[in-house]
Amino acid sequence: MTERSDPTPALGTTPTLGSTPAQTVGPYLHIGLLWPDGPEVVPDGTPGAIWIRGQIFDGAGAPVPDALVETWQADPDGRFDHPDDPRGARPSDVPGFRGFGRSATDVDGRYGIRTVKPGSLPGPDGVPEAPHLNLSIFARGLLHRLVTRLYFPDEEAANAADPVLGSVDPARRATLVASPAPDGCRLDIHLQGTDETVFFAV
Amino acid sequence: MTTDHLRSTGSGSGPGDPVRPGGLVLPRYRHDDPDTHPPMLHPDYGSTNLRAPRQPLALLPHRLTEITGPLLGTGRLGELDHDLTRQHDGEPLGQRIIVHGRVLDGNGRPVPDTLVEIWQPNAAGRYRHAGDNWPAPLDPNFTGVGRAMTDGDGHYRFVTVQPGAYPWRNHPNAWRPAHIHFSLFGRAFTQRLVTQMYFPGDPLFFQDPIFNSVRDPLARERLVSRYDHAVTEPEWALGFEFDIVLRGREATPFEDGDDDD
Ligand SMILES: [Fe+2]
After folding, report:
1. pTM, whole model, 2 decimals?
2. What residues of chain A lie within 8 A of the CB of B132, using their CB?
3. Any idea where the domains of chain B sit in the sequence?
4. ipTM
5. What SS3 class is residue A90?
6. Which fold is adopted by the domain B25-250?
7. How far A66 CA lies from chain B's nearest CA (Å)?
8. Of A59, B28, B30, B51, which is most buried by a Cβ count within 10 Å?
């Protein structure tokens, strides 16, 4: 480490600060978090665009009408336009690709995100990660976001080799794999109950 | 979210070891103390009962999708998004306040150029939202929504009015302490945080199950802003400081202080 007058301490030499705790988004998240282009990970008219849709259910099987789903993903080449990707930040070849989507659920608990399918990613020990989206779910009654993943139904071989999917109880793995739909794919999310979705601590 | 029921995914990396997918060295973000964040199931807050998962959380290792995240530009901001008192023809009623602070990571480093979104009720405690119908007045000059980017030093600043407390039906005579909702992205998926900022000395804390869902009293205090007389502007507005700490990174032998960004 070289000497300089940077007030920012080096990693590993500082006492760690405790994180600010999470709190629920509450029932009025819509005024703060809805964007007109929220569900549009890619612009209208993008070749190969798909819709990812689904419904969110609570432990009584009732739709959750006041949730927010956020998605984050690589582009079709498996790249991120982000400086912490050690392969280098690379803007996507897909014009207007944002990587990020945000959709509130409607009165029937339905969400929808327009995107393009991500590529696979290099994984540990040379085993790639299958194409996937990370999902965050926020709602009244969720004191902290819930995190899950969406895998694609047409990637059977890649899914079978995926290290994260492989770490999940085989009986519950299917909760992370979308089903085909005419304009994309569908993944329902069950917050609780016999079909409870696998959620992750990040 | 507590981490006390985590199942390992058997990634083979020990604590502090960098993860090397495909030979790539990735940063890893520290896990928070188990009592920092609320448990998902908190029966005092009735809405958690049918919404909190009952199965243990699986552990998601920090790989490319987790250590990256949306870096949303200033293109999302309107000129007056940071000033909730100037978004209409007239001024909103209520005590004008300045809410400012820094977004830091757990290593004490500022998080620059990150989007901060806030929403809140008006001075009477009512949200401009179709679902909020309690008999308090709406204010035609107040929407209650703000956005700002942190500067290079991680600093943000909003001008707004002191939000009112509001009743809810969670328990008899239930009132939410005055609060402002905050949403933060940080620089990675791991750092995404939605929280609420409270005001010092609120007499409603004792009966609020959302505030008290945070079990660690020191962590709970981190949700409470500080009155900041140095930022209070004479004959204009009261100042409050609210620093927000997002998760820090594990130290790795591959990083040092010179290229930490
Ligand atoms: Fe609220």
Report:
1. 0.91
2. 27-28
3. 25-250
4. 0.93
5. coil
6. Protocatechuate 3,4-Dioxygenase, subunit A (2.60.130)
7. 10
8. B51
